[in-house]
Amino acid sequence: MSVASVIVPIFGLILLGWTLKRLRLLNDWLVGAINGYVYYVGITVITFISLHDTGTSLLLNPRIYILNLAPMLAIAGVAYIVARLLRLEQGMAAVFIVCAFYGNTGYIGFPLNVYVQGKESLSVAAFISTVYTIVAFTLGVYLLRRSSDEPAEAGKLHRLPIIWAALLGILLSWLPLPDIVRLPLGLISDSTSPLALLATGAMAEGTVLKADLKSIGALSALKLALAPALVALTGLLIGSSGMVYKTSLLEAATPVAVTSSVLAAQFKVHPDFASRAVILSTMLFTITLTAMLAFM
């Protein structure tokens, strides 16, 4: 597997979504329906399966939380300061912060870890991706809800299916899932990232990619350079190495998460900015990833 084999399919699906919207084969209602499916169904299923299949030793490993949560929260804090310096209004600042700490740990992170470390790293990558997702759907949803005119009930934690999916996944981890249950859940899981990429491309149609270049440039620097640097520093401070450390580093280095644009669209808070951030940071990721792999 090459770097191109990770990046090209992602841009291919984004381009397909853009083309379908351009040809009016995807309308606004359908794009909204796809976003709703990804938000309420797809990510919920992925979270349940990941936590259900996570071993106890990994779940109780404090290093995995330190290596991922500490840099995420630090990036969120730095992003808040940068957003203030850029004088972004509240809604734009909220999207900026979410995009800065929430990387594409699934659709890019999974194949990236397989490429660098092999298939045995997938379970660690899946768990770390779930940690990112839970933070995004708690802290991220809180930030976006404060800037949204959508009903306040939409973002309450007890109404978020991902929270219940995480709890259910842990509670039922001792119980093997029968094939009749795992097969449809697996199909839903597999469909989520491609549909999210299609929706991202569709939402980008009609927007000007060169808009907000200053803000997206600063955002990309935080996500692609500072985030992995903080993980590396944290690993050095706690003396961490091995698969948990490398997987945390690779996941932190991923570009802005596609789900960020889904969240922004769900709360109607600058989804066009989030879509541009996804596309442009992924383009820059080809450069930062090549440089990072050269030193690993």
Care to describe what's here?
The chain has 296 residues and is mainly alpha-helical. Helices cover 76% and strands 0% of the residues. It is built from 13 helices and no strands. α2 runs parallel beside α8. The model has no long low-confidence stretch (mean pLDDT 86).
Could you list some keywords that capture this structure?
mainly alpha, 0% strand
Task: Give the overall pLDDT as a whole number.
Answer: 86
Biggest sheet descriptor: none
SSE pattern, N- to C-terminal: HHHHHHHHHHHHH
The class by helix and strand makeup works out as mainly alpha
Helix content: over 70%
Show unreliable segments: none
Shape: globular
Number of helices: 13
Distance between the termini: 16 Å
Tally of strands: 0
What multimeric state do the chains show? single chain
Strand content: under 5%
What does this entry show, briefly?
This protein has 13 helices and no strands.
List the helices and strands and how they pair.
Layout: H1 3-22, H2 28-52, H3 56-59, H4 62-85, H5 90-101, H6 109-117, H7 122-146, H8 161-171, H9 179-204, H10 213-238, H11 242-252, H12 258-266, H13 271-294
Helix pairs in contact: 1-9, 1-13, 2-7, 2-8, 2-9, 2-12, 4-5, 4-10, 4-11, 5-7, 5-10, 5-13, 6-7, 6-11, 7-11, 9-12, 9-13, 10-11, 10-13, 12-13
